[in-house]
Each structure stands twice: as C-alpha cells, then as structure tokens.
Amino acid sequence: MVLDGEVDLGLARSLNHPEVETTSLRDDPLILVGHPKHPAIRKAKARLAEIESWPLIFYDRGSSDWTLTNGLFRRAGLLPNVVLEVETIEACKRMVLRLLGLGFLPLLAVTDELRSGKLRAVKITDAEPLHRSLDVIRSRHRPLNECARNFLNLLRVATKKGRIANK
Fold first, then answer.
1. What is the pLDDT of residues 29-76, one digit of tens each?
2. Mean pLDDT over all residues of the chain?
3. CA triplet 46, 40, 55: central angle to 5 degrees?
4. pTM score
5. Domains contained in the chain, CATH given
6. For residue 26, what are the CA distances in angstroms to 5, 32, 90, 134?
7. Rounded to 10 degrees, what is the CA torsion of 160, 163, 165, 167?
8. Which of 30, 57, 80, 166 is 20 to 30 A distant from 143 in Cα terms?
9. pLDDT per residue over 66-87, tens digit each?
C-alpha cells in the first residue's frame, strides 16, 4: 500500500526494499509464553531440547516470525512439537490463554498479559534470543505531508516511552 501510494506510512517488521525508507521504532523480541496453569510453564527457565517436546502453537506460516521460531529449533537440530498453527498473533495468544500450548509471541503483543499474570514467560537458557524490529516504512519518492510527519513523530515518542502496545 505504501508503494502504491494508498498510504503514507506503514508499520512492518524488518522490511528491506529499495523503494521504501525504513525507520526502526524499537526492538520487539519474540518470547516463549504460556498460561500459568499449563504444566510446562512451572519453570521460569528451560533448555531448548526440553522445549522441543512441549506443545507449541505457531502462527502466520511463512512470516518472519514463523521463520525465526522455526530457525531457532532447526539450528539446534531439533524439531518443535507444533500442535496447532493459526493465522494471527492474536489467535495464537488466545489459544495459549486457553491452555492449548505455549507460543513464541512478540513482547508488544503480550505485555499486558505478562503484567497481569495471565501469561508467564519462559527464558530459554541455551539459545540466542529471538529479535525483530518494529519499523515504520514510507516511500522514498514521496514527501510526507504534515499529518503523516506528526503521526511519525507521535510513534517515535510513544515507542521510546514504551506506550505502544499491540491491541
């Protein structure tokens, strides 16, 4: 939509394109989360080989998040126990909240649930953290109008203060 001129700005994850200018707003790590009552979530830390057998819920097959998560296991020579694949981050979060499994979800998407205790995170002790960037994209060939510039500034301020959340 940005390339076609339908919108001035877009939010994306780690996008590189020659026609698009990308501004990184913040790092948004993928973290392993589960419902506090799920048997696997009793541990605050676990090794990836242990997590391999846990029931996992993945989302958005083929996306950068899906690729990052699968790559984590593949690099370790492991095959994750994917019990369910859903279309969206929000659907994955709902399935995790229903005790159907654990999910690697963006921190921005689960911040409220972690604060309220509805979800708990598990730290993976023997693998690198999964990171992705939350970016604003715009066309390199069209100047931003005043409204778009103001909105971009608002996004920058909100992400620096940690106020932006995925609702």
1. 999 999 999 998 888 999 999 999 999 999 999 888 999 999 999 999
2. 90
3. 100
4. 0.78
5. 10-27+132-160 (no CATH), 30-124 (3.40.190.10)
6. 25, 19, 20, 6
7. -150
8. 166
9. 999 999 999 999 999 999 999 9
Match 């391999």 to its residue by tokens.
52
10 Å CB burial of residue 153 (0-12, 13-18, 19+) is exposed
Question: What's the CA gap between 19 and 23, in Å, rounded?
Answer: 13
> What single-letter amino acid sits at 105?
L
Instruction: Give residues with Cβ within 8 angstroms of 114, minimum separation 6.
Output: 33, 120, 121
Residues forming beta bridges with residue 130, ordered by sequence position: 30
CA distance 132 to 134: 7
